[in-house]
Every structure is written in C-alpha cells, then in structure tokens.
Design goal:
- By secondary structure, the protein is α/β, with parallel strands linked by helices.
- It has one domain: NAD(P)-binding Rossmann-like Domain (Rossmann fold, 3-Layer(aba) Sandwich), CATH 3.40.50.720.
- Helix content is 33%, strand content 25%.
- It starts with 7 loop residues before the first strand and ends with a helix.
- The mean pLDDT is 93.
Length: 126
C-alpha cells in the first residue's frame, strides 16, 4: 500500500540564514509533515532542499499551501504566478501583507490567510 501523500508547501522567501523566518518556516513545515519547496530567486540549496528560482519552477501543482516571507511590494508581483500554480491556502505572514495584496489575492481566487504559518505548524504539534 502506498504511503499517504504529504501536503505540499512552497516557502517564498526561503533563506539559508537559520535566524530568519524564511528558514525557520522550511524547518517547521518539514517537521509538521509537509513536502517543502524552497523558493528564492538566488536558487541553490537550503537545509538540504533544492531552491527554485520562482514558484513556476516548483514541480508540485497545485500546492496545498504557499507561505510568504517577502515584503508586500515583492509579494504583490508574485500573486499572478501563485494563482497560475494554484494553492489551497496563501499565508501572508506578519509584515508580508498589505490591503492591496489581500484584495488582489482575493480577486485572483486565492485564499489569503493573514497569520503566522509557523504558529499554525506549532499548533499542530510540530
């Protein structure tokens, strides 16, 4: 029998710096049982994971969750690509949200959640 499929998450703004939330999120989501995809235009590898330069390059589609760790002005430019990829939940972590971003995400049919995805993982026991 096949193992159950892990839920998927793309961490936009993934960071190699273990003190940054973009890195803490990678580790927390992995600990929470997600298949994690790191997204950062620099590419490379973080925490043993390949880093995709854009959400379009992530091999899973649609994603269960996309969690943002970039400034609102940057995130706003990524919403069309996120909508094209598809996701069940779009987490706008503290400092990543703006009224314009929330309105645009809703207009694209995304489900923006303005909250900390790290706290969500912790609440699940990770």
């Amino acid at each position: 029998m096949d193992a159950p499929k892990k839920p998927t998450v793309a961490v936009i703004g993934a960071s190699a710096d273990r003190t940054k939330f973009g890195n803490r999120s990678l580790r927390a989501h992995a600990g929470c049982g997600y298949e994690v995809f790191a997204v950062n235009p620099k590419g490379g590898e973080i925490e043993g994971l390949p880093v995709y330069a854009s959400i379009a390059e992530v091999p899973a589609s649609p994603l269960d969750r996309v969690t943002m760790y970039v400034p609102p002005a940057v995130g706003l430019t990524l919403l069309d690509a996120i909508a094209a990829k598809g996701c069940g939940e779009l987490w706008l972590n503290p400092g990543t949200e703006s009224p314009e971003m929330i309105a645009r995400a809703e207009a694209l049919g995304l489900n923006p959640i303005v909250a900390c995805s790290l706290i969500d993982c912790a609440s699940r026991g990770a």
